[in-house]
UniProtKB/TrEMBL annotation:
Family annotation (InterPro entries): Leu-rich_rpt (IPR001611), Leu-rich_rpt_typical-subtyp (IPR003591), LRR_dom_sf (IPR032675), LRR_domain-containing (IPR050216), LRR_R13L4/SHOC2-like (IPR055414)
Source organism: Clonorchis sinensis (Chinese liver fluke)
Protein name: Malignant fibrous histiocytoma-amplified sequence 1 homolog
Record domain Disease resistance R13L4/SHOC-2-like LRR: where: 78-140, 149-223
Short name of any one Pfam family annotated for the protein: LRR_14
GO cellular component, one term: cytoplasm
Species lineage: Eukaryota, Metazoa, Spiralia, Lophotrochozoa, Platyhelminthes
Length: 262
């Protein structure tokens, strides 16, 4: 969006280069107090940041130019003071974990920590009951994080490019999930409960080790598998046998016929 069309108020923080912005015509985050940390402020997060209790959007993702020199190595536990946060962006840093205090951000709606080195999430993530969007792509998860299974309002989950081997049966608890991105993992099977995700409209399963799909996947009626119809579900790059990839591309009816005959 053209910044010249926005009505912006900026509040400078004394002793730092930080400015808190409110852009009343920002289409993505309208009338929300937002702050972006860049450069050296990522390396040494100013303590004054955590006094901004009205902050609603916080971006601590480095821009392309500064990411080679300045990255966030840890999220201070004081992040828990910012209880009005609704959007927290921490992508493309050098994070190995998130503090337990992140669970205090109970108004959080979107959390993005893709392109880091995170292996597990703190149990307190389960307290983020308003979270609807979670980006965890390109990290080091080998097990599906259990706290996510309690996020019943989650609509979007991106865990592409990790090392996930299995999905727990409790994945079926995420009944509001509309987008699930699991491209480029090490999944060898999916639980039968996968078919309980009946609101799914986008499913990426490409580049895994799947040899079979559960019969229940035919319950996911909002997915488009046929290449000619702009597919929203993909299984390319798997050694699929049951059903074969060709059958999957024929759509739900062909998959259902295959399962009925097998």
């Amino acid at each position: 969006m053209n910044a010249g069309c926005e009505k912006t108020t900026a509040f400078k923080m004394a002793g730092t280069s930080l400015r808190l912005h409110i852009e009343t015509e920002d289409r993505e985050y309208p009338s929300m107090y937002k702050l972006k940390l860049q450069g050296k402020d990522l390396e040494n997060v100013p303590a004054e940041l955590f006094t901004l209790r009205e902050l609603e959007v916080l971006c601590m993702s480095p821009d392309r130019q500064s990411s080679l020199n300045y990255k966030l190595c840890n999220v201070p536990p004081e992040i828990g003071y910012l209880t009005r946060l609704r959007i927290l962006l921490l992508d493309t840093n050098d994070l190995h974990n998130l503090p337990a205090e992140i669970g205090s951000l109970t108004r959080l709606e979107k959390l993005s920590v893709s392109n880091n080195r995170i292996r597990q999430l703190p149990p307190t993530i389960a307290d983020l009951k308003n979270l609807h969007t979670l980006h965890l792509a390109n990290n080091q998860f080998s097990e599906f994080p259990a706290p996510i299974l309690q996020l019943e309002n989650l609509k979007f989950l991106d865990m592409c490019s990790n090392q996930l081997r299995v999905l727990p049966p409790a994945i079926g608890n995420l009944k509001n999930l509309e987008t699930l991105l699991l491209f480029d993992n090490q999944l060898s099977e999916l639980p039968e409960e996968f078919g309980e995700l009946t609101r799914l409209r986008c499913l990426w399963l490409g580049d895994n080790f799947l040899q079979s799909l559960p019969k229940s996947i035919t319950k996911l009626e909002h997915l488009m598998w046929t290449p000619l119809l702009c597919p929203t579900a993909t299984v390319d790059g798997n050694p699929l046998v049951n059903p074969p990839a060709k059958v999957c591309k024929g759509g739900l009816d062909e998959m259902a016929r295959h399962f009925a005959q097998s």
